[in-house]
Structures are given as structure tokens and as C-alpha cells.
Design a protein that fits this description.
With 103 residues, the chain is an alpha+beta fold. It has one domain. The chain has 3 helices and 5 strands. It has a 5-stranded antiparallel sheet.
Length: 103
């Protein structure tokens, strides 16, 4: 998380809203460890990673909704889900990603 803080500060100082997505649980093989974070700015900039690129595009789309509503979300990605293949989490594990807007 601390590697993305300078970018979050820069974006918020420029008046942008920001969502932070954080890996809050992993099961079996996971591409990134607990606490891995991805920041998404209102203008569409991204910094960090929650999956090494596997699910970032889906997290980005959900972050847009969190930016608009302010309501946090918990997302789960895993190989058992049909969605897992479509968003590219073929590593055999599962991750839970929590999205919240920075206030």
C-alpha cells in the first residue's frame, strides 16, 4: 500500500476522487499477497496491482461504480467461477478484493 500513497496524494491534491482496491483474502495459489493494493483515479489513472494484471480490468470497472456511488464493494475472483476465466485468473487460486473510495 505504501508504494501507491504518493500517487494517491497527488491525485487527491488535484481534486480527483480515488478508489483503493486491496486484496483482503487469498486461497490456494494467488498472484499477489494479502494487502496488495491498486489505486484508481476518477480520470482513469491506475497505480499498483491486486493480481499482476489478471483481474485489473474488472476491478477498474467496479471501481468506476464505487467512485460514482461511494458504496464500497467486495469482489471475489476464483477459478471455479465462469467469470474467473473471462477476467483471467487461471492460477488456480481465489482472491477477495475490497474496493473503497478514499475520503
Amino acid at each position: 500500500m505504501k508504494e501507491i500513497l504518493p500517487e494517491i496524494d497527488r491525485w487527491t491534491e488535484n481534486g480527483e476522487k480515488v478508489v483503493v482496491a486491496t486484496v483482503v483474502a487469498t486461497r490456494r495459489s494467488a498472484p499477489r499477497p494479502l494487502g496488495a493494493s491498486l489505486a484508481i483515479s476518477e480520470s482513469g489513472k491506475m497505480c499498483g496491482s491486486v493480481s499482476g494484471g489478471c483481474v485489473e480490468s474488472d476491478v477498474f470497472e467496479n471501481a468506476r461504480e464505487v467512485l460514482a456511488t461511494g458504496e464500497p464493494k467486495l469482489l471475489t475472483y476464483g477459478i471455479e467461477d465462469d467469470l474467473a476465466w473471462s477476467v483471467g485468473l487461471p492460477c488456480g487460486g481465489e482472491i477477495d478484493v475490497f474496493l473503497e473510495r478514499v475520503e
